[in-house]
Amino acid sequence: MSYAYTKVTDLEKTTMVGNHQCVALVRHYTGAPATSAWKQGAAVLGNRLLRKGTAIATFINGKYANHQQGNHAALYMGQTSDGILVMDQWTGKRPGIVTSRTLRSKGQYKNGLHIDPSNNADAFFVIE
Prior knowledge:
globular; single chain
């Protein structure tokens, strides 16, 4: 089962929620469980069947890594010619508001890990 917030476009330029971490935004608006329960779903890049507002995140071996950096969660907004459009927040983001942004495809290293996963469209999957 995926999680979604259908009014995602209304979040543009709103005040950050919770502890301002990316996961707080996703859980607050979609009702997703703790990250320990998240499972990797379908790839986001190129998936034109995804509903706007679907909760997405980066995963390593099917699990959300929960590291201090190098992982991210967001709300899906759409596809671009070379990436995806997301609504997100993160600690330290200025000026402390939720905004949309485009994440471009950056590929993977030879070892299979994604390059700059928090900002790489290739690294995002649906949260199940």
